[in-house]
Amino acid sequence: MQKIVKQSFSWVFSILLGIVVALILSIYVVQPTKVLGKSMEPTLHEQEQIIISKLPNTFNYHPNYGEIVIIDSRVSQKRSFKDDLSDNGLVRLLTGNHSDNIWIKRVIGKPGDVIDIKDNQLYRNGEKLNETYIKEAMNSTNPVEVQLPYTVPKDSVFVLGDNRNHSRDSRSIGAVPIDHVLGVALFTK
C-alpha cells in the first residue's frame, strides 16, 4: 500500500511539475497562438498558427520597425501577473477563452517618431513609407481617432495592421506601452 501511495505521489508531482514548467515557458519564453481576425492579411490569415517569442516582453525589449508583435490593446490599464497568466496561450487552450484585447500588429513607429497619414499614405518622420506588405491602399473613410501628426511617446510603439481598412490599431488606441507588447512573432506554422 505504501508503494502505491509513493508511486501516486510521484506521478502527481511529475504532472504538476510539467504544468508549472509549461506555464513558465509559455509566459516568459515562447508560446503558440492562433490568428483571430483579418487585420493582418495578406501577411497572416485567420486561424493561422504562429509562434511568439515572449523574451522581448520578459526583457523589456523595444521591437524594430516592421516586426509583427502581439499586444494588449488595453493601453490605459496597467498590466499585472494575472494578465500575463490569463492572456497566456496555454491557459487559453485549456479554458477555451480568447481575449478580444490581444491583437497582432506590425510596428510602424518607435519613441520620438512622428506618424502622419496624408492622401491615404503613411509617413514616418516626414518620409513616405514603402509598405509592400499591406493588403491595399488605406481608405480615407477609416476613422483615425488619434490626433495626426502623432508623436510616439517614450517607451511606446505605434502599431498598425497590414489590412489597414479592416484593422483596429494605434490609429484608434494610440501608442502601445512597451510593457503591453507581449511578444514578437517568430514564424507561422
UniProtKB/TrEMBL annotation:
The keyword Hydrolase applies. Its main location: membrane. It catalyses: Cleavage of hydrophobic, N-terminal signal or leader sequences from secreted and periplasmic proteins. It is found in: Cell membrane; Membrane. GO terms for biological process: signal peptide processing. GO terms for molecular function: serine-type endopeptidase activity; signal peptidase activity. Signal peptide: none annotated. It is a single-pass type II membrane protein. PANTHER family: CHLOROPLAST PROCESSING PEPTIDASE, SIGNAL PEPTIDASE I. This is Signal peptidase I.
